[in-house]
Design brief:
This protein has 18 helices and no strands. By secondary structure, the chain is an all-alpha fold. The chain folds into 3 domains: about 180 residues, Up-down Bundle (Growth Hormone, Chain: A), CATH 1.20.1250; about 55 residues, no CATH class; about 240 residues, Growth Hormone, Chain: A. The chain is globular. The C terminus is likely disordered.
């Protein structure tokens, strides 16, 4: 129970802020691109630190590390509640990411190191269902808090979950640890963090400001250098943070890439769906989140079904079926969504996506954890988590940036005749455009309509980008496969 509640707090913080994008943009004067950075600062930090802190949990003890991470996470959310500016909120999100990077790898390591072999797949299925459904459940509860009060209240929810997890963990979580032969890999930890942050920065800035813009080029350069140094160092070090030779295993490579792609596109879709519900359909945060519930229910149900299905037809067939359904759902969203179509135009695609996500995630997670020995379960869980969170950061950066660039490209030629100050606000994002429309006089209704149609144009581009990622992933898994069902080693 403790690890599931802790995991839900971490996952809820990944997605909970999505429901408050419009409010944060208006209250703090942030552009759509800046709001994406506020959302993604948490995820980037989490992804960058998961591997080293997963190894630290193995080395220094999972229980004390879990309790430390919960405490850091709590302090960060207190700061976020009182944040007076974009800068302070960004700092709080980074600190939250540090705490989450301590917590998250330990949650799966506890399951995989304590569950008996015959029950491990079921435990992973529950963990996957909590991880996948917890994000949308967190958005639902966060939306209720936002609608009843302020966007600041959404940081109260993780605080409550962390308090419960802390009390239960002190009593129930065993203090397991490993005794590695080699010292902690500080060089690999730093290089991996630099590589991840640089790569996400390039993906975030490229579609909006251009792939040759200074920040984009600097981010890409740092990402390439960081990843290159990390790979070279890991291959020569006797006790590597992550033994890259393990990726010769078809199970490990296919499972990791599947989680990277599925979680990335899922996170990107959630970021663009909320503004569609709120700014285009005019829904409140709570109603918008209720709109996600059918997808969440099907995702959790199919995640629970996936272990039995993969036992019958194999991991690869289950993963391929999930990826294919996910791509079909995205295509449906791209083709059917419009400013006038309403909820029923996007519901079929969401339902198909929900089933596909659940079917793809569980066998991918089982492939990763099953490919590594018991003594490396902290690293296994961190690898599983880092692919999820790196995918999330990349998906939010790429699909969010494609949406922002598509929106700006579509709205720019339609702002003639709009007062300069109002037009400048409209270029920043749909929430800013709707807020500025209140002072646009006779042009208010026209500006809102222009912003909504421009948003849908950017939305369609983001959906097709997601389809492209899923097609590439499908081809890779189909050709590479996952080999026989992995057996636990060590």
């Amino acid at each position: 129970m403790a690890v599931c509640v802790a995991l839900m707090a971490v996952i809820a913080s990944v997605s909970g802020l999505n429901v408050a994008q419009s409010q944060v943009a208006v209250e703090l004067g942030a552009s759509q691109s800046t709001v994406l950075w506020i959302i993604n600062a948490y995820t980037v930090t989490l992804a960058a630190l998961l591997l080293p802190l997963g190894a630290a949990g193995d080395r220094w003890g999972r229980k004390p590390m879990l309790l430390t991470g919960l405490a850091v996470f709590a302090v960060a959310n207190v700061v976020a509640v009182a944040a007076p500016s974009v800068e302070v909120l960004l700092l709080a999100r980074v600190l939250s990411g540090v705490g989450a990077a301590v917590i998250m790898p330990i949650t799966l390591a506890v399951i995989t190191s304590t569950f008996p072999e015959e029950e491990r797949a079921k435990g992973i299925g529950v963990w996957t269902a909590v991880g996948g459904g917890g994000g949308i459940l967190g958005m639902f509860l966060s939306a209720a808090l936002v609608d009843l009060g302020s966007w600041r209240l959404l940081f109260v929810l993780p605080l409550a979950l962390v308090a419960i997890a802390f009390v239960v963990a002190r009593r129930a979580v065993p203090d397991s640890r490993e005794r590695p032969e080699h010292g902690f890999d500080a060089v690999g930890s730093l290089a991996s963090a630099v590589g991840i942050v640089g790569l996400v920065t390039a993906l975030h800035e490229g579609p909006v400001h251009g792939w040759l813009a200074p920040l984009t080029v600097a981010g890409a350069g740092a990402g390439v250098v960081g990843i290159g140094v990390f790979a070279a160092w890991q291959l020569r070090r006797r006790g590597p943070l992550l033994d890259l030779r393990m990726f010769r295993s078809r199970a490990l490579s296919s499972g990791s890439l599947s989680l990277l792609g599925v979680f990335g596109v899922q996170a990107g879709i959630l970021v663009v769906l909320f503004p569609y519900f709120q700014a285009v359909l005019g829904w409140s945060g709570l109603v918008s989140t209720l709109g996600f519930m059918p997808m969440a229910i099907l995702m959790m149900a199919s995640a629970g079904l996936a272990p039995r299905l993969s036992a019958g037809v194999g991991l690869r067939s289950t993963m391929l079926g999930g990826i294919l359904m996910f791509a079909g759902g995205l295509a449906s969203l791209a083709l059917m969504a419009s400013a006038d179509g309403g909820y029923l135009s996007v519901l079929p695609g969401m339902l198909i996506m929900g089933v596909g996500m659940g079917l793809a995630m569980t066998p991918a997670t089982e492939a990763i954890t099953g490919a590594l020995p018991r003594a490396q379960q902290g690293v296994a869980s961190a690898l599983n988590d880092v692919t999820r969170e790196l995918g999330t950061a990349m998906g939010v950066a790429l699909l969010g940036a494609v949406l922002s660039a598509g929106y700006r490209s579509a709205i720019e030629p339609r702002l003639e005749g709009i007062p300069a100050d109002t037009a400048d606000a409209a270029r920043e994002g749909i929430a800013n455009a709707i807020a500025a429309a209140h002072g646009a006089g006779a042009a208010a209704d026209s500006l809102v309509r222009i912003a909504q149609e421009s948003f849908v144009s950017g939305w369609q581009q983001a959906m097709w980008a997601g389809v492209a990622v899923m097609v590439l992933l499908f081809v890779y898994v189909a050709l590479r496969g996952v080999g026989p069902r992995p057996a636990r080693r060590g």
